[in-house]
Amino acid sequence: MATQLVKCSRCKTIITIAGKPGDKLNLTCPQCNQKGIFTFPKEESIHPVSVPGNTETIEVHNLTKTYNDFTAVNNISFRVKKGEIFGFLGPNGAGKTTTIKAMLDLLHADNGTVHLNGIDVRKHGKEAKKHVGYLPEKVAFYDNLTALQNLEFYAEIKHVSKDECAPLINEFGLADAGKKRVGKFSKGMVQRLGMARAILGNPPILILDEPSGGLDPRGVVLIRDKILEMKKKGTTIFVSSHILSEIQEICDRVGIINKGILVAQDTVDGLRKKLSLKPQLTVTVDTLTSKIENAVKKIPGVDRVAAQHNTLEIVCDGAIKAKVILAITNAGGTIQNLQTKEPTLEEVFMRYTEG
Amino acid sequence: MQTNIVISIAKKEIMDNIRNKWIILVSVMFALLTLAVSYFGSLGSTGWQDLGNTISGMTQLASILISIVALMLGYAAIIGEIERGSMSALLSLATTRFEITIGKLLGLGAVLCLTIFIGFGVAGLVIGLNVPNVDFVEYLVFIGVTMVFGLVFLSVALFFSTVFSKRSTALGGAIFLWFLFNIILPIVLVGLLAMTIDFSSILVEETLVIPDWYHVLDLLNPISVYSNLIEMTVGPVQSSIDASLIENPSWYTPGRLLGVLFAWIIVFFVFAVWRFHQKDI
C-alpha cells in the first residue's frame, strides 16, 4: 500500500490517498466536490532496490565514464546513508563533477549503476530525480526572468507550490532582488538562488557541487548553516567542495577521488588513522636546552622534533603525550604552554592525492 | 510524457522571449516590411496595393526573413542552455529530454507564430483600411502557411542545436543552412536542369515543362515548397523566375505540399530528440 498526494484540478486542495500499484481510484475533492480519477503507477515501472533496514540513500556501484581514451571516472563505488553528509574531494580534473553528472544521468556512464532512494537512475531517471535537489558547479538561470519567476518555473516542474518560492528567496537574503532580472545578479547572488532552487520542495537527497563557489564569507556561512539545517531534517547530502576546512567541519564521511579513482572513503578520523597521521605537539618551555631536545627525541613513538627559540614542535602518537611532558620536566624544562594540533583534512587530502 | 511539464517549459520560453523584447522587435520589422512592400513594392504603380498583390510581393521576402528569424530563434535553444549551465539544472529534475525538446518547440513555435501573426496581421489591417474589397481569408491563409513554414526552420534549428557542442558552431551551421536553402540548393537544381535537358525542346506554348525529378528534388527545399504552396492557395508569387512560366505537376496539391512541410517539422524534431538523448550534458 502506497500513499500519494494529489492536487484538486479546480480548487488546488491537496488530498492524501492510499492504494496499491495499478489501482484506479475515483476521487471527490472534500472542498469543492470536483470529481476525478487517479491511477497509481504500476509496480513494474519502478524497481526499488532498497529493502527494509537498508538505509543507503545514494548507492553508486562500479561507475565508469570514459571520453575516447581518457577515463574520467574509473569504476568507483560508494554509499551514502540516510541523513548523512558525504564530502566528495579531489583536485581539479579528478572527476568530481563527472561523477556527479553521471549520478544524475546528465552524462551517459559507460558502466555501473546509481540508485537514488533505491531507484535506478539510468533505468528510471525521471522517477529517481523526483527525490533530488541539485546545485551544479556552474549555476545558471534564465537571465531575462526575475529570481521569483525562475524559482516559480522550477516549482512548476517539481510540482511544488509556488507559494514556497518567495519565502525561500527571503531565506537566502535575496528579498530585495526577488523582482530583479537574474541577468543583473552578482555571482554570489546567483549561487544563493541556486541553493534555493536545490532545496525547493525539501528533497530527501541534496547533491551540491561546489556550494560555496563565488560566495563572500557571509554567503559561505549562510550556505553552510542551510546544509546543516537540511541534515537535521534528515536530508542526505552529497557535497563536493574545494574548501577542505568546510568539508571537515560539516561532513560525516568523505570520499577522495584522484585521477578518476576513488582512493579513499571514510570519516576524517578514519582516514587519519589509515595514513597513520600523527598529531603535532607544540611545547613552549622557559629555557630550551639540547638536553631537553634529546630527551624528547629518545622517546619511542616520536617521529620528528623541531626546535625554534623556546618552542619544540613534536610529531608523535597522541598516546605518548604524557611521556613527552614527563621527559621535558625530567630534563629540567618548565612547560609554559602546550598545544595539540590534529592533522587536518588538508594533510589527509595532500597525502591521498600526491603524485 | 507529462503535459504539465511540457506546458511549463513552453510557457517559460514564451515569457523569456517576451521579456527580452524579441517578439516586439521582429513583429515591428515584419509589419514595416509588409507595409513597405505594399506601398512601394510594385513597379509602375503608386500607393497601397491590395493584399493579393502584397502577398505576391511578400512571399519571397518572407521566405528569406522567416527562415533566418526561425533559425536565429532556435539554433541555441538546447546548446545555449547546455553552455550556460541551466540545462543541467533542468535535467536534474524529473524531466525527460523529450519533454524539454517538445516544450521548446512548442514555446519557441508559439513565439514565432505570434510574431508572424502580429507583424503581418497589423500590416494587413493597415492595408485593409486603405484598400477596398480586401480578401482577408486569402491573407489569413498566407499567414497560416507562413507560420508552418517558420516552424519547419525552427525544427531544423532545434536539431542543429543538438548536433553541435558549441553555440558558435551551431550559429555557423544555421547560417550555412540558410545559404543552403536560399541560394545553394536553387542554384544546384537549376544547374542540374540546365545540364540534363534541352531548353529549346521543352518550351511549349510559353510554359516550361519541367521534368518530374526536378519537382521531386524541389520538395527537399522547404522554401520552394512554401512558395509553391502560397502560389497554389493564394496566387502567383513574384520571384526572379516568372512563376507563371513554370507548370507544376498534377501531383503537387496544397494538401501534399502542406504535408511535406509538416513532415519536415516532424522529421527534424525526431532527429533533435534522438540527438539530444545521445548528448552528454
Q: Percent of residues of chain B in helical segments?
A: over 70%
Order of helices and strands of chain A: EEEEEEEHEEHEHHHEHEHEEHEHEEHEH
Note the total helix count of chain A: 11
What is the subunit arrangement here? heterodimer
- Widest sheet of chain A: strand order? 10-11-12-7-13-14
Walkthrough of the structure:
- The complex is a heterodimer of chains A (355) and B (281).
- Chain A has 355 residues and is an alpha+beta fold.
- Chain A folds into three domains: 2-45, no CATH class; 56-272, 3-Layer(aba) Sandwich (Rossmann fold), CATH 3.40.50; 277-343, Alpha-Beta Plaits.
- In chain A, 29% of the residues lie in helices and 31% in strands.
- A six-stranded mixed sheet of chain A has the order 10-11-12-7-13-14, with helices on both faces. Chain A has a four-stranded antiparallel sheet with strand order 6-5-8-9. A four-stranded antiparallel sheet of chain A has the order 16-17-15-18, with helices on one face.
- In chain A, strand 5 and strand 6 (70-81) form a beta hairpin.
- The radius of gyration of chain A is 26 Å and the shape is elongated.
- Chain B is mainly α and 281 residues long.
- Chain B has one domain (3-278).
- Chain B is 75% helix and 1% strand.
- Chain B is built from twelve helices and two strands, in the order H-H-H-H-H-H-H-H-H-E-E-H-H-H.
- A two-stranded antiparallel ribbon of chain B has the order 1-2.
- In chain B, strand 1 (203-204) and strand 2 form a beta hairpin.
- The longest helix of chain B has 34 residues, at 97-130.
- Chain B is globular, with a radius of gyration of 20 Å.
- Chain B starts with a helix and ends with a helix.
- The interface between A and B is medium-sized, with 31 and 25 residues.
List descriptors.
heterodimer, A: 355 residues, alpha+beta, 3 domains, six-stranded mixed beta sheet, four-stranded antiparallel beta sheet, B: 281 residues, mainly alpha
